[in-house]
Design brief:
The chain is an alpha+beta fold and 84 residues long. It has helices at 6-13, 17-24, 28-35, 44-54, 58-61; strands at residues 2-4, 62-64, 69-74, 77-82. The protein has five helices and four strands. Strand 3 and strand 4 (77-82) form a beta hairpin.
Length: 84
């Protein structure tokens, strides 16, 4: 699972989502989706702007954690199987 640690990074700097939107020019709704980890897609330009504004590396912002469920890819989409 890919995690976006934007809420953590903003908290460390004591910035609001609005502060980041002003600093980067990224729409507040886009930042909100990343902040709450509900973004399905992330723009690379946005990631670059955020890293620049927060003076951090991409690895400080995005991490991969092992999935709790296994997934298999099919032609019609992904199927999720619970690990037991």
């Amino acid at each position: 699972m890919i995690r976006i640690l934007l809420s953590t990074r903003l908290g460390e700097r004591r910035w609001t989502q609005a502060d980041l939107a002003r600093a980067t020019g990224i729409r507040p709704s886009t930042i909100n989706d990343m902040y709450h980890e509900i973004a399905e897609r992330v723009n690379l330009e946005h990631l670059d702007l955020i890293c620049e504004a927060l003076d951090c590396e991409l690895s400080d912002l995005i991490v991969r954690e092992p999935n709790k469920d296994t997934r298999t890819k099919t032609r019609t989409g992904s199927h999720i199987h619970s690990k037991r």
